[in-house]
Amino acid sequence: MRLDLDAMEALDAVVRCGGLARAAAELHKVPSAVSYQLRRLEQQLRVPLLDRAGYRVRLTPVGEAVLAQGRRLLAQARQVESLAREFADAWEPRLLVIVDGILPVKPALAAFKTLADEGAPTRFQLKVEFQRGVQFCFERDDADFMVVKDYEARPYLAAEELPPVECVLCVGPRHPLAARRAVSLDDLQDHVELSVQDSSGRQDDPHGFGGERVFYLSGFDAKKEALLMGAGFGWMPLALVRADLRARRLRELRYTGGSRYRFTPRLVHRLDRPPGRAGRRLAQLLRVASSR
Question: For 199-221, b where at least 16 C-beta lie within 10 A, e where not — what string?
Answer without folding.
Answer: ebeeeebeeebebeebbebeebe
